[in-house]
């Protein structure tokens, strides 16, 4: 692969990684023991809060929390792919499809730099 393009994609991935980590840290705390795993902060009821209003607020928070889970999960998966792609760049095997081991299309990598599979293999999944 062209070195200039590789550098370009690396910068793109670094930026994506930063963005994803920023988003994730907004509603999740990074798990200290399991690297790369993120725990969503479970909403807690305000201390000393009583009565139906407090309960309602807590219920709203729980709802927001469960709405957020798929988003968080999705971001976590993307972050893993981005980190994986950056790791491959360091090892020098970036851009190779994990399934058929063929070089991936550069146009595909430009729009989807964290791709792990070529378009053909992705379709077969
Ligand atoms: Zn493939």
TrEMBL record:
Composition bias type Basic and acidic residues, residue spans: 32-42
A GO term for molecular function: zinc ion binding
Pfam families: zf-dskA_traR
InterPro entries xrefs: Znf_DskA_TraR
SUPFAM superfamilies associated with the record: Glucocorticoid receptor-like (DNA-binding domain)
Domain (Zinc finger DksA/TraR C4-type): residue spans on this chain: 92-121
Entry keyword Glycosyltransferase: no
Zn finger spans (dksA C4-type): 97-121
Region (Disordered): 32-51
PROSITE patterns tied to this protein: ZF_DKSA_2 (PS51128)
UniProt keyword terms in alphabetical order: Metal-binding, Zinc, Zinc-finger
Transferase listed as a keyword: no
Protein's UniProt name: Zinc finger DksA/TraR C4-type domain-containing protein
């Amino acid at each position: 692969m062209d070195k200039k393009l590789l550098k370009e994609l690396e910068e793109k991935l670094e930026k994506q990684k930063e963005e994803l980590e920023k988003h994730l840290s907004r509603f999740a705390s990074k798990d200290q023991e399991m690297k790369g795993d993120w725990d969503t902060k479970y909403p807690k009821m305000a201390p000393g809060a009583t009565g139906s209003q407090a309960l309602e607020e807590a219920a709203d928070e729980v709802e927001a929390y469960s709405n957020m889970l798929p988003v968080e999960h999705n971001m976590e998966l993307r972050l893993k792919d981005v980190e994986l792609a950056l790791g491959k760049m360091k090892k020098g095997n970036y851009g190779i499809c994990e399934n058929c081991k063929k070089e991936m299309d550069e146009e595909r990598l430009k729009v989807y730099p964290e791709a792990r599979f070529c378009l053909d293999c992705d379709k077969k999944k």
